[in-house]
Specification:
It contains nine helices and six strands, in the order ααααααβαβαβαβββ. It is an alpha/beta fold and about 280 residues long.
């Protein structure tokens, strides 16, 4: 595929501007050099490709089809900002009767919206195998933070003062920040040669002072934890909770429920990320 500079032909342009009719009473004919200091003015035009409007449109359209995008399928992995919802969902979410609801609207006036929220929570519970779902957190990192506060509260109620949380180096980068904000100390677990949680390292660091193990599955290398049941069991044997950053849930949704492999707490990355 040719670069835009290779497509360039002298004299072509992809824009048309209306003729400037200056009103002397308002602005007059003012040289640009009187408005911008000389040191900030170009001495010669920038080197830019010269293309027609169809050239520009076709060039960037062709580029888009060399990437994976929503028109070609769903995102199983990647940044939360990349996982677009189906377009029909985006359209429905923008309906004025739903999108413009005032937060203080009486409950009897928004029963339809409340029904949607309730049904969504039931679907997420079924997908994850979790017993309860909260729709309160409004972002992925927010969900991580709320999850860690719940972990803290869980052990407080048990009368245990656990201070550490284990985070594999293949987990999402916001995980350590979230747990620190919740008052825990992060302990990094290195990956093994296959890019997965190193079982030996995990066993060395897990003890009664560890409150939680934070996992991302598939991890940021795009790999499934092939020994996930063993990893979870090692954590549970020490009374440690296991958290799943569900940013990559699309990759195994409908194949296995996180709760079935021992996940205790997780969040969902859907539009406004959720926590279960």
């Amino acid at each position: 595929m040719e670069l835009s500079f290779e497509l360039s032909r002298e004299g072509k342009k992809a824009y048309s501007l209306p003729t400037l009719v200056a009103n002397p009473a308002v602005c007059g004919d003012v040289p640009i050099s009187t408005q911008i200091p000389k040191e900030y003015l170009r001495q010669k035009p920038p080197r830019l490709p010269e293309l027609s409007e169809p050239d520009v449109i076709r060039h960037f359209t062709n580029l888009s089809y060399r990437n994976y995008h929503i028109e070609r399928g769903m995102y199983p992995l990647g940044s939360c900002t990349m996982k677009y919802n189906p377009k029909v969902n985006e359209y429905l979410a923008r309906l004025p009767g739903f999108a413009d609801i005032h937060p203080l609207t009486p409950e009897y006036c928004v029963q339809g919206a409340l029904q949607l929220l309730y049904e969504l929570s039931q679907y997420l519970a079924e997908i994850s195998g979790m017993s309860e779902v909260s729709l309160l957190p409004v972002a992925g990192a927010h969900s991580e933070f709320v999850s860690m506060l719940i972990v803290r509260k869980y052990f407080d109620k048990k009368g245990e003062q656990r201070t550490k949380i284990l985070v594999p180096d293949s987990a999402h980068g916001t995980n350590p920040a979230s747990l620190v904000l919740a008052g825990f100390e992060p302990i990094q677990i290195k990956s093994n040669k296959d890019g997965l949680v190193d079982i030996e390292q995990l066993s060395q660091h897990i003890d009664k002072n560890v409150a939680c193990l934070m996992l991302t599955i598939p991890n940021t290398l795009g790999l499934f934890e092939t020994q996930i049941e063993k990893v979870v069991q090692i954590a549970h044997n020490e009374g440690c909770l296991v958290y799943l950053d569900g940013a990559n849930l699309n990759a195994f949704m409908g194949i296995v429920k996180p709760a079935d492999i021992g996940i205790d707490i997780m969040h969902f990355p859907i539009y406004r990320s959720l926590y279960a």
